[in-house]
Amino acid sequence: MAGMRVALLGVGRLGAAHAATLAGLGEVSELRVHDADAARARDVAEAVHATVAGSVDDALRAADAAVIVTPTPTHAPIIKRCVDLGLATFCEKPIATSLEETKDVVAHADRANARLQIGFQRRFDAGYRRAKDDIRAGRLGTVYSFTMTSCDREPPPDAYIETSGGQFKDQMIHDFDITRWLFEDEADEVYATGSTLGQPQYESFGDVNTSAVVMRLRRGIVGLVMATRENRAGYDIHVEIHGAKDTVAIGLDRSTPMRSVERDAPRMADPAYPGFIVRFADAYREELAHFLRFARGEADNACTAKDALEALRLAEAAGRSLREQRPVRLVEVPA
Cβ distance 173 to 311 under 8 Å? Predict the structure, then answer.
């Protein structure tokens, strides 16, 4: 399917970046953008030579594929609309913040045999891909443990926190997804703790500013995932994976004594970035390019709706652990 017609729904910060990426891939014959903020849609469309659509229906009309970057509460109904139209669909994570709504979308997509890819861009980052290759090839030997650190540069507005679903579903869900992808294993048990230090108002939202989750995978690998919403030094995502033969790191600078799986990739001297779009610019580009191949039937689905559901189950288990102050088995969160 040459010269695809793509509907882009939502052109906020990430959506605008996706618009520029799609316009530059050379595989899109027509890009139609829609946003609840009509002025923002016009600005983005003008910048990338796209067409403004006055409504979601107008954007989807005669489209071959849809890319959804709207606010999370709108994801599920828009996915269903796209699926019912038979469109190849890409949606940024999460499908929804509730398990029931997510399960409903998964079932809807399954019944329609839909082409639905969910946006977990770390799967396309060069460092993570090299680490997975090392693990699969046995270069690390038996993998025993890992640590993941996710630091946002500054907290989002309180209004966003209030509706985000919480740190586990909003921020740390990327770590939960990439854990399953990297180690090709499922979590057996999690234990979570957290603090509102620095952002005491989060307590009224049932959320935390800083958290840590200890995970034990089914094969016995133990991991520690840590996140904070405020790190003024910059956006910082890094991982260490420890095996019997070797240790690798993702996202650390060149001064680390560990062998970095990003050794051949251009990197900043400091692991902190101004924001997630800069840090994962290449990954976002690869992700959308893969989606277009998937939409044309030339590639497998890189991240299914069921993958998104499993990441959300981990987030639900972590939230329950935090509230009840106890380890939670994944079997307690029905699939």
Answer: yes
pLDDT of residue 84: 98
Residue partners of 6: CB distance under 8 A and separation at least 6 = 22, 28, 30, 31, 32, 63, 64, 65, 66, 67, 292
Convert the pLDDT of each residue in 294-310 to its tens digit.
Answer: 999 999 999 999 999 99
Q: Tell me the longest C-alpha to C-alpha distance in the chain.
A: 57
Residue 228, number of CB atoms within 10 A of its CB: 23
For residues 94 and 271, give the distance between their C-alpha atoms in angstroms, rounded to a whole number: 26
The pLDDT, as a whole number, for residue 23 is 96
Encoded tokens for 112: 């329609």
Q: 104 to each of 79, 304, 309, how far by Cα in Å?
A: 11, 14, 10
Residue 157 has pLDDT above 70, yes or no: yes
In DSSP notation, 74-142 reads GHHHHHHHHHHTT-EEEEESPS-SSHHHHHHHHHHHHHTT--EEEE-GGGG-HHHHHHHHHHHHTTT-S
Residue 122 near residue 174, CB atoms below 8 Å? yes
Which among 215, 140, 208 is positioned nearest to 176, based on CA atoms?
Answer: 215
Contacts of 138 (CB under 8 A, 6+ apart): none
Helix spans in the chain (H): 13-24, 38-48, 56-60, 75-84, 99-111, 126-137, 158-163, 167-170, 173-183, 276-279, 281-295, 305-324
Among candidates 51, 57, 18, 16, which has minimal Cα distance to 33? 51
Which residue type is seen at 22? L
Dist. CA 40–CA 19, nearest whole Å = 12
Task: Using the structure block, give the residue that is written with the tokens 């017609």.
Answer: 5
pLDDT tens digits for range 269-281: 456 788 999 999 9
